[in-house]
Amino acid sequence: MTQLSEHFTFEELTFSQIALRTGMANDPSANYLIMANLKRLCETLLEPARMILAVPVHIDSGYRSTSINRLVGGASNSAHIDGRAADIVPIGIPVPDAFHILRAHSDLPCDQIILEAGAWVHLAIAPEGQEPRREALLAQGGPGRWTYQVLA
Q1: Distance CA 49, CA 34 (A)
Q2: Distance between CA atoms of 54 and 124, rounded to whole angstroms?
Q3: Which residues are within 8 A (CB) of 106 and not within 5 positions of it... i.e. 6 or more apart?
Q4: How far apart are CA 98 and CA 88, in angstroms?
Q5: Is 64 part of any domain?
Q6: Number of folded domains in the chain?
Q7: CATH number for the domain including 22?
Q8: Structural domain boundaries enclosing 109
């Protein structure tokens, strides 16, 4: 196991059921920028989120190659492709509650926090050198047909 931070590993941030089923690669280890983004995502967003929630979190989806992202119906400009996003499911807290708890922490450097279909929380960091937008959204629908509601 390769630790990216205290509680998160490279393997869990790059695991993909789609890659496993199709035999496609989902390994960004040769890309320095993506590797740096994954480490920054873990250290600046996922670890603090885990501390705030005070429970472990399962990474449902982290890094996605462009091909994997296309297969799952992700946006062509998804932060997952750059290693800047993870979809999390807290262990022991209802997902909508976790979303609202994390959203209430204005010091959490989220570029985006999205409650997706009430089933997971998408957390993304801004590109290196950019200020986070601190955008909060509710997403409904499914792959290829998501609709988003911006929260004030």
Answers
A1: 21
A2: 20
A3: 134
A4: 10
A5: yes
A6: 1
A7: 3.30.1380.10
A8: 10-150
Whole-structure pTM value: 0.95
Convert the pLDDT of each residue in 94-132 to its tens digit: 999 999 999 999 899 999 999 999 999 999 999 999 999
Distances (CA, A) of 115 to 26, 53, 68, 76: 25, 15, 21, 19
Dist. CA 40–CA 37, nearest whole Å: 5
Q: What angle do CA 91, 67, 47 make, to 5 degrees?
A: 30
**Residue 104, Cβ neighbours under 10 Å: how many?**
9
Alpha helices in the chain (DSSP H): 10-14, 17-22, 32-41, 47-53, 66-71, 95-103
What confidence tens digit (pLDDT) does each residue in 36-94 have? Answer: 999 999 999 999 999 999 999 999 999 999 999 999 888 899 999 999 999 999 999 99
